[in-house]
Amino acid sequence: MQLLANHRSWFETGGQRGVRADLSNEDHHGESFSGANLAAAVFREARLSECNFSGATLAAADFSLAKLDAAAFSQADMRGISLERADLSGALMTGANLSRLKHFQKDDVQISANLNGANLSAIQAAGIRMRGAQLVGADLSDADLSNADLREVDLSNADLTGTHLSGAKLDGAIMDGTRGLPSAAS
Fold it and tell me: Which of the residues 133, 160, 173, 182 could staple to 113 if both were Cys, CB 3.0 to 4.6 A apart?
């Protein structure tokens, strides 16, 4: 796919060659981006239901307001990603990495994954790494977050009704106004 080749060139040369991938407002339902390097790509308001991003590099990509229901992100590198107000209901995110991303020019700056207001209901995300992620107002109802690394996440006003958190690490998590939190996890 020429789009991927152009984006890879753009990314590897710091924008000197190639073109940054921008699929904003496009419909790519069911397409496979498995293993692709789409770091810093833009997918704002894209329709990406049932797409396969397994093993893809999506660090610092922007998926704000995207429709990603039933998409696959297993083992994807999603550090520093923006999924603000995106719909990921029913997505497969087992082993994905949404931890903080170290800024490429400033070692002391880290970018947190932004999932504020996202619909993450019924996601399958056992073993997901989300250390330091922002999940303010996110819907995590009926999600499987067993064995997840949720240290230092901001779950303020999030909905955890029916969420499976067995073995999850929640040290330092902010849970002001969180709904549906199992008593064992608080």
Answer: 133
